[in-house]
Design a protein that fits this description.
Residues 1-5 have low confidence and may be disordered. It is built from eleven helices and ten strands. It has a five-stranded antiparallel beta sheet with strand order 1-2-3-5-4. The protein is α+β, with helices and mostly antiparallel strands and 345 residues long. 40% of the residues lie in helices and 13% in strands. The protein has two domains: 10-115, 2-Layer Sandwich (Phosphorylase Kinase, domain 1); 126-344, Aminoglycoside 3'-phosphotransferase, Chain: A, domain 2, CATH 3.90.1200. 2-acetamido-2-deoxy-1-O-phosphono-alpha-D-glucopyranose (GN1) is lined by residues 33-34, 213, 236, 259, 308.
Length: 345
């Protein structure tokens, strides 16, 4: 999404927030697929400080204020405990509000820019895997005493696997763009895995506050190893099952190849990385997980790999309406990658 031409200049938007001085430079950070993000530099005397200024994509989040209320709750709750050291905190506006709503409904928010941190799109060391998983477990642990009903469900049924399964069946039945024939074997394999779709959601597990996008790239690692990793991208924080966060982390971080790999031969679960992720997650999450949750840990990566395969395949059968894709068949390849990963688990 590029910025609306009629919206005010970045310096004017930034001036509404409590920043140390005027904006002297800004640049767009193009890595996100959903929101529009800028790094802005403010000057105060001889000191230059950077901040993140971001507008929320209202096509993905039609009620962006609910996203912001969730983020406010979560950052306030955990910030009170750890002074923002392990997580983002919102920079308030001069008006006292925590986010800026423009007349056209666009919402802007501002975060500190965490200098001297690095991000990874791929994990290759068990040590890093352990630290990443411990950070996500810690994120859940810090929120385990906040009432989940205090948060909005910003994307209803986000990890309700049977709902995605039903949508796949409907898409296959309708076959609106004639892509079923080439994907029939994939649909058949998914049908054979139906038992996995209800395994987590029907297990009576406690509803907790979860992150819902536990990719490795959503952690900032300070270059000083003594400092704790910082969990970012809080847009999908909402009530959910802890095991989906754990499963999504293992699925994405312990895969030997990227989600977009074109050679399925290269994809399998790396057991060493998976073990390090599990150990790291339990190092911070075992204090609040119930025995039932712990017993289902080994199934969680399978369920989420299947769920994501279903989502990609459904999008392929519908002609590509949700996930950004770079070529025809991209979502089919992504679905097959998840199914290959599932078979290796
Ligand atoms: C989407 O846009 P991104 O990469 O943050 C999706 C996740 C999937 C992921 C797969 C809101 O996340 O659920 O796991 O793609 N997010 C949403 O790459 O649908
Ligand atoms: Mg995300």
């Amino acid at each position: 999404m590029s910025r609306n031409r009629t919206s005010p200049p970045i310096s004017e938007i930034a001036a509404r927030f409590i920043l140390p001085g005027p904006v002297i430079a800004h640049e767009e950070i193009p890595t996100g697929l959903i929101n529009t993000t800028y790094a802005v530099t403010c000057r105060s005397g001889q000191t230059h400080t950077r901040f993140i200024l971001q507008s929320i994509n209202s096509a993905v989040f039609p009620e962006p204020w609910k996203v912001m209320e969730n983020i406010l709750h979560v950052t306030f709750h955990t910030g009170a405990k750890n002074h923002g050291a392990e997580q983002l905190c919102l920079i308030p506006l001069r008006s006292g509000m925590s986010w800026l709503t423009q007349p056209d409904g666009t919402i802007w928010r501002c975060y500190p820019y965490h200098e001297d941190t690095e991000t990874f799109v791929k994990i290759d060391s068990p040590d890093l895997a352990y630290r990443a998983a411990a950070a996500f477990g810690n994120f859940q642990a810090r929120l385990s005493d906040l009432d989940p009903t205090a948060l909005h469900e910003t994307i209803p049924y986000f990890h309700h696997t049977p709902t995605y399964f039903a949508k796949l069946l409907a898409a296959a039945e309708k076959n609106p763009v004639g892509r079923l024939e080439n994907a029939r074997a994939d649909v058949d394999f998914i049908l054979s895995q139906k038992h996995l779709t209800t395994l987590l959601v029907d297990a009576g597990l406690p509803i907790r506050i979860t992150h819902n996008d536990t990719k490795i790239s959503n952690i900032l690692f300070p270059t000083a190893p003594s400092l704790p990793p910082i969990v970012i991208d809080l847009d999908t924080v909402m009530p959910g099952l802890a095991l989906f966060d754990y499963g999504d982390l293992v699925r994405s971080a312990a895969s030997t190849a990227d989600e977009n790999e074109t050679d399925p031969e290269k994809i399998r679960l790396d057991p060493v990385l998976a073990a390090a992720l599990t150990e790291g997650y339990l190092s911070t999450a075992s204090v609040f997980l119930t025995p039932e949750e712990k017993a289902l840990l080994p199934s969680a990566p399978k369920v989420i790999a299947l769920e994501l395969a279903i989502r990609f395949l459904t999008d392929h059968l519908l002609g590509g309406v949700y996930f950004r894709s770079d070529y025809e068949g991209h979502n089919l390849a992504r679905a097959r990658n998840q199914l290959t990963l599932l078979r290796s688990m």
